[in-house]
Amino acid sequence: ALRSALRSKVHPKAGRLCYSSSSAPTVKLFIDGKFVESKSSEWLDIHNPATNEVIARVPKATQEEMLAAVDSCSRAFHTWSETSVLSRQQIFLRYQQLIKDNIKELAKSITLEQGKTLADAEGDVFRGLQVVEHTCSITSLMLGETLPSITKDMDTYTYRLPIGVCAGIAPFNFPAMIPLWMFPMGMVCGNTYLLKPSERVPTCAMLLAKMLQDAGAPDGTLNIIHGQHAAVNFICDHPAIKAISLVGSNQAGEYIYERGSKNGKRVQSNMGAKNHGVVMPDANKENTLNQLVGAAFGAAGQRCMALSTAILVGEARSWLPELVQRAKALRVNAGDQPGADVGPLISPQARDRVCSLIQSGVDEGAQLLLDGRNVKVKGYENGNFVGPTIISNVTPEMKCYKEEIFGPVLIVLEADSLDDAIRLVNNNPYGNGTAIFTTNGATARKYTHEVDVGQVGVNVPIPVPLPMFSFTGSRGSFRGDTNFYGKQGIQFYTQIKTVTSQWKAEDATLKSPAVTMPT
Ligand code: NAD
């Protein structure tokens, strides 16, 4: 029902429909509290990754539509920023409940457009929901500071204030979680928000917008535009937009960071990754192998925190055959099929790119222990499937090591010692996440202290921090200085105003101008 409210034609049955490009339902824009049909002459097809059938069309918003969206945000800011923090909190309390009530519907839309399994899609919503739940603590999160009696009769206090219109540009791989890292944090602080979802998976964000409206968010507090480069440039350039949150590839993130910063905006860019899992020979073997396989191949490897690179230290090398056996046992299927472990990649181009990176490893002398390139999925022969793939004997010079593969491919390197493993990880330009598997506390402690990566797991393969912390990817995986969500997120979306006041009990009128600095 929600979905049909947002599309001009009702979607019949998920996954098994075949539209021609021009007859597919259209995704609307969300401008000033209304879901409106775009007048654009440029549209992009959205495909079901499991079948490659066209399931919808998304517009590239026109300049006029984008201006209307940002104007709506600007107008709404005047009242929203003055709305009491308790009223804003109430809206997000209702919002988190609506998301919980609709988790299955959101997950279905994610699986249809993005491809991941339904169970994993629910996880996508759930991890975003946790951020929304955290925004409900805004009354504490936004507290300022005070220090009385800085000097005689003088007190200093700070307020955290919203900064204006903020914008978010989202990637395709987490259609719920990542938009939910963005607009709830921005809005609960009193900002209004312009969101550009990924043009490849826009429907989930529209469903989330409808629920936010139902939760009571006033018109104009959230606007949604669709598009690609023109929409991104519009966001980077429009003077009313004060801050941009981007999650995406390095190509997009570095560009947006530079263009937005040049225009005087705050920008936080969460970008690509190459996450290493260091396996010590003293690790719990069963646990470690299962963790590695889950973290490398879950979501078909299309997670920025996927554990895509294993470093087997010393005797752990001998675990390779068992690793391959476990990966082989995963079931590749359309995301809405029962028992599916690994769904399709987002597009045929993504599949071809992943396959060519696998081939580059072979050509450069690595050993292909498990090859998922020719996987056949019955009933889904046109889907973008690649099965779990494991490449060993990889070295740091190889292309498959240097590039983020973003597919169900685990590459395996070997190291003689923990020091060698740490050197390898620290020489890699990315710093999103890493994990060490060990039963030795001193080894874990050495690793966590010496590894130069922003998020470290100890026997935790995907150490994405919960929302009371922040997402702290580092080095080549991040541009900016203030991270997403948690305290850092509040900082990103607020400006501090510091007030210094003096109230003297007795009359202390200055008798002459004070031209020197007080000492
Ligand atoms: P993408 O960079 O292609 O797209 C992200 C957003 O940027 C989209 O809204 C898109 O329209 C826009 N965009 C795309 N190319 C652009 C360009 N050249 N210039 C300006 N804007 C552009 O990313 P994607 O393929 O949707 O997502 C996958 C990438 O996102 C991977 O690299 C992954 O590691 C990264 N990612 C990072 C995190 C993180 O928190 N570090 C989380 C999820 C995904």
Which class best fits the helix and strand makeup? alpha/beta
Low-confidence stretches: 9-15
Strand proportion? 15-25%
Radius of gyration: 25 Å
Largest beta sheet: strand ordering: 14-15-16-13-12-18-19
Q: What's the N-to-C terminus distance?
A: 68 Å
Description:
This is Methylmalonate-semialdehyde/malonate-semialdehyde dehydrogenase [acylating], mitochondrial. One of its GO terms (molecular function) is methylmalonate-semialdehyde dehydrogenase (acylating, NAD) activity. Malonate and methylmalonate semialdehyde dehydrogenase involved in the catabolism of valine, thymine, and compounds catabolized by way of beta-alanine, including uracil and cytidine. The structure is a single chain. The protein has 519 residues and is of the alpha/beta class. The chain has helices at 2-6, 63-80, 85-101, 103-114, 118-135, 138-141, 177-188, 203-214, 229-237, 250-262, 285-297, 320-328, 348-363, 399-402, 418-427, 441-450, 486-492; strands at 29-31, 34-36, 43-47, 54-59, 146-151, 154-162, 165-169, 192-196, 222-224, 241-247, 266-270, 276-279, 309-313, 367-370, 389-392, 409-415, 430-431, 434-437, 456-458, 474-475, 478-479, 494-502. Strands 14-15-16-13-12-18-19 form a seven-stranded mixed β-sheet, with helices on both faces. Helix 3 (85-101) packs antiparallel against helix 5, helix 4 (103-114) runs antiparallel to helix 8 (203-214) and helix 9 runs parallel beside helix 10 (250-262). The model is unreliable at 9-15 (pLDDT under 50). The structure holds nicotinamide-adenine-dinucleotide (NAD). Nicotinamide-adenine-dinucleotide is lined by residues 169-174, 196, 198-199, 228-229, 232, 247-249, 251-252, 255-256, 270-273, 304, 404, 406, 432, 471, 473, 477. The site of nicotinamide-adenine-dinucleotide (NAD) has 30 residues, from helix 9 and helix 10.
